[in-house]
Each structure stands twice: as C-alpha cells, then as structure tokens.
TrEMBL record:
This is glucan 1,4-alpha-glucosidase. It comes from Smittium culicis. Belongs to the glycosyl hydrolase 15 family. Residues 2-401 form the GH15-like domain. It catalyses: Hydrolysis of terminal (1->4)-linked alpha-D-glucose residues successively from non-reducing ends of the chains with release of beta-D-glucose. Its EC number is 3.2.1.3.
Length: 421
C-alpha cells in the first residue's frame, strides 16, 4: 500500500517485511529533512515533488492504520502488515515511542507546509488535514499524554517497563506540537501540549544513575528480559540523535558502544548466540560526536563538569586512534569546574578530538559495508561480515542522518576557524 515503509524486504529468517511505526517515522523524518533542503534549491522541482508525494502517502497510510487499531495496544501497536491490515500475532505491545516519533515526523512536515504560505488563513488551511481534532497529529499527541510514564516495550521489543528513549520522544513530540499549534494561533492545543511538557519534562531525571554516572535505559521493569546489564543500553545514544537537535545531557563513556547492550544474545536470526555490533548504532555513535562539535561551536562555551572532562579523556585515550600528548589530555583537568570558551587552544583541540572520534566510528561503518553499499542489521562479532535482515531501512537512515550531521559539523568548524583562528 502506498505510504507503507518496510523495515526490510527480508521475509524469512528473519521476517521483517512489516511497517514498523517507529522505523517508518525515523525514515520519514529523514525524508522531510531532504525535502527541506530540496525546497531551497532553484531549478527542476521534480525531486521536491517526489518527496512531497512520499510524505503525503505516508500521512495517508498513517491515517489509515490509526483507524485500524489493535484492540489492546491501540495507537501503541508497533507494526502493521504492508497492506495496512492489522498484525494480530503475539508481540511485545504496546510500544509507546511509536506515536511520539510519528508525531515528530508529521509535525515537521506540517511546519514545511506552513512555511510555504504567508497568509494566516492559508497557513492554517494548509495543515487542516493533519492538525485537527480528529487528525493524526492530534491523535498521536493525545495518546502520548494519556500514556506518558506507563509501562510498554522498548525499541528492541525485549523489555517491558518505562524507558528513557520513549519518555524523551514523548516530551519532544509535545514540545513540537505546542509550537505548531501556537504558530497557527490555536492556543487551546498550544496550552494543552505546553502544560503536558511542563508536567513531564523533568521525568527523565529518574533515569540518571548519579552513583555510577550513566543514564539507565529502563526503570519500573514489569516484564521481558530481566537481566540487562545495569539497564545500560545504546538506545540512550539513539535518543540523543532522534529526539534532540542540540543534546543537553550528561554524556558518559559508558554510552559509547557499537552493539545494543552488554549481554545481548540476538544474532539477527534468533537469541541462541551472542549479540553483535549494529551498523545503525555505530552510525549513531558517530552522529553524537558530530552533533557535539556543532553544539560546542555554536554555544561558544561549555562547562567542564567531571562528566564532561571524563568524556573528553575517554575519547582521547580509547575512541580516537590519533595520538594526543599527555600534556594536552592533562589540560582538560585544569579546566575542571570552569567555563571553557572558544578562544582557547584547548577548545580547538576538543573540537578536533570530537570530530576525529566521530570519524573513527565512520571508518568502522565503511570497513564493514558491502562493496555495493548494502547494509544488513548486524555485523558478525567474529568475522565482521554482515548478517541478519538484509537492506535494513533503519541502517540506511542512520547512515544518512549521520552524514548530514558530519556535513553540519564541517560547516561549523569552518565558521569557527574564520571567527577564532
């Protein structure tokens, strides 16, 4: 059915030929980013028209499946058949990140449509098919409000509880919903969503493990795998790049992993063996570094907390293959508790360190990617070869968003060089 997005064309061992609400939302968010870029170009509008058609089809499909809800999961149903029919087999449901991520992608498209109009009446009319009492954006945000902090399965579909990734996605969706409503003077919805943001925004503090210095992926466990190592999971990295344009949280060394989590046993076919590194997570780790480069440059300062200093030192000693002198690394310690500013040598060194660290992960992706550019779900931890679901849509999307963030970081470095060096 037009508008459906298959997670992978693989139908046997594993069968991923479904429309996952999460995966499709991430893909279409990237498509919207490309549409934003195409709309600024002068010349042949074919690509822009094609991308708009893709977004419209995705919206139509989303509307269709939202009216074909699972009796238990409702809008939290994680996946549908490619023809839009309900998937009725046993599965880990609900998955409450799906409606939030879909709202984020559709709100971004709504904003694109608004920006094409100048007249206030025309602006409001241009999104009346996706933002109204019975429209997909409003339905998704209503689900977010009603299910915030409730147990569900996380993005790996293995653990039931309350999850950092999901909570962050839900708050971000409500923020964007409030901004969208305010931009068309719909203050009833703007106030409703903004009130929810104020109510929920501090909830993610519950995931911070201050004793050991990392963000727990799950709290209030109620089912699924009980023995994840310290609730430490790479989905925290994914939360940073999927939800925040400007990450503003503690980044600790423990977050940086190419696999999903310690003790993972899913090998792309079953859970009988050891887990493997994933291309999408390795791309995500690179993207975090590139986004930090842009953030440091445009914020023009960073407070050197203990966590920040340890992260820089970890990156210099463990992630980055380029040799850095012990004197340079010790300089980080001298700034502990101070405000680092861009006109210092150490600031320049940190920016380069972060960019180089991102490139370390990028080189790993390049090394394991097939010569034809094909990406599967995983890399075998022993042989390095691709395995699992072929042509995983999420793997490609993760690479593309990482590439966009790297390009943005390069532009930021150019700006920094012209201004301070």
């Amino acid at each position: 059915m037009p508008g459906s997005v298959c997670a992978s064309p693989s139908k046997i061992d594993p069968d991923y030929f479904y429309h996952w609400v999460r995966d499709s939302a991430l893909v279409m968010k990237f498509i919207q980013t490309e549409l934003d870029k195409e709309s600024k170009k002068v010349g042949n509008p074919y690509e822009k028209i094609n991308l708009e058609r893709m977004m419209d089809n995705y919206l139509d499909f989303s509307k269709y499946i939202s009216k074909n809800q699972h009796p238990e999961a409702k809008l939290g149903e994680p996946k549908y058949n490619m023809d839009g029919s309900m998937f009725t087999d046993e599965w880990g449901r609900p998955q409450n990140d799906g409606p939030a991520l879909r709202a984020i992608s559709t709100i971004k498209y709504a904003q694109y449509l608004l920006d094409k109009k100048e007249n206030k009446f025309q602006r409001k009319k241009s999104i009346s098919h996706i933002f109204c009492n019975d429209c997909i954006i409003n339905k998704d945000l209503e689900y977010v409000i009603n299910n915030f902090g409730k147990q569900g399965f996380e993005i790996w579909e293995e653990v039931k509880g309350v999850h950092f990734y999901t909570s962050l996605a839900q708050v971000r969706a409500l923020e964007l919903g409030s901004q969208l409503a305010a931009s068309i003077d719909d203050f009833e919805y703007a106030n409703k969503y903004n009130s929810a943001v104020k109510k929920f925004s501090n909830f993610t503090n519950n995931f911070w493990n201050s004793k050991e210095g990392y963000i727990k992926s799950t709290i209030d466990w109620t089912g699924g795998l009980p023995d994840k190592y310290k609730d430490l999971d790479s989905q925290v990295i994914l939360a940073l790049i999927h939800i925040w344009d400007d990450p503003q949280t503690y980044i600790s060394p423990q977050l940086l992993s190419r696999g999903r989590y310690k003790g993972d046993r899913y090998n792309g076919h079953n859970s009988n063996g050891g887990g493997n590194p994933w291309p999408l997570i390795t791309s995500a780790a690179a993207e975090v570094y590139y986004k930090l480069v842009s953030k440091m440059i445009y914020d023009e300062s960073i407070i050197a907390t203990r966590e920040v200093i340890d992260f820089f030192k970890f990156s210099a000693k463990t992630i980055n293959s380029k040799t850095r002198s012990e004197i340079s690394i010790r300089l980080f310690e001298e700034y502990l508790g101070l405000l680092m500013t861009p006109n210092t040598a150490v600031y320049k060194d940190i920016i380069q360190l972060l960019f180089d660290s991102g490139d370390e992960f990028l080189r790993r992706v390049k090394y394991h990617t097939a010569s034809d550019g094909g990406m599967k779900e995983q890399w075998n931890s022993e042989t390095g070869f691709n395995q699992g679901a072929a042509d995983l849509t999420w793997s490609y999307t993760a690479f593309c968003t990482m590439k966009n963030s790297r390009d943005a970081a390069k532009r930021a470095i150019k700006f920094y060089t012209l201004k301070y060096i």
